[in-house]
Amino acid sequence: MSTPVYAASSYLSRTLHRGASSGCDWVQDLVQSVKDGDRRAALRAAAVLARHPALQGFTGVVVPAPRSDAGRPPLTILARALVARGVGTRVALAVVRASPVESSRARRRTGLPGVSEDDHLASLRVAPGAVEPEESVLILDDVVTTGSTIRAVARRLRAAGHVGEVVGAAVARTTDDLTSAGDCRPQFTVLRAASSRRCDLRRVAL
């Protein structure tokens, strides 16, 4: 079963294109601030995601994607801010790391591919009772490149008997296509089909 993944913006990957700039470096800086648990950055990112047409009216549970290590995900701040904006009714740490995996970003810096979906899947476990079997789930990540983390979380939920709707969302998606760098302007996107509707993260009122 496929899992649609929605993103609020996109940017050129600095990891793959060192020294290159798409004019959207501030988007990556915002994502990094969200990763670091910066509350103001999380509020700004949540304000944008809450305007995504595909997420408006979502009334299920928001599940932060677990970090590559076994620590508490900083995305909890972003998830709670999203719920406060009316997307979802609660936050649940429904899927956690049973064992750490190497950071995909660190692997790409050395020329290796990111962590595979199957490797992510093997490292995850479901927290019993955190999500009802028929409850709608929004898996929240800070950034998506291949979507392997979100897909692995969805698969782990399905394997545990979850039968409700599952979608994914992220602050931004990365692109490694230098020829499309001009398309990195903030916009509502779905990984396989972009919407024409645009929203500038720098101009969102907190």
Structure keywords:
single chain; 206 residues; alpha/beta; eight-stranded mixed β-sheet; two-stranded antiparallel sheet; 10 strands
How would you sum up this structure, described in words?
It is built from 6 helices and 10 strands, in the order ββααβαββααββαβββ. Strands 1, 2, 3, 4, 7, 8, 9 and 10 form an 8-stranded mixed beta sheet that branches. A two-stranded antiparallel sheet has the order 5-6. Helix 1 packs across helix 2, helix 2 crosses helix 3 and helix 5 crosses helix 6. The chain starts with a strand and ends in an 8-residue tail after the last strand.
- Report the uncertain regions: 15-22, 177-206
**Count of individual helical segments:** 6
- The N- and C-terminal alpha carbons lie at a distance of 36 Å
Assembly state of the chains shown: single chain
Please tell me the overall pLDDT: 78
Total number of strands: 10
Approximate helicity band: 25-40%
Q: Secondary-structure element order, as H and E?
A: EEHHEHEEHHEEHEEE
The share of residues in extended strands comes to: 15-25%
The biggest beta sheet reads: 8 strands, mixed
Structural class: alpha/beta
Overall geometry comes to: globular
Q: What would you report as the Rg, rounded to the nearest angstrom?
A: 16 Å
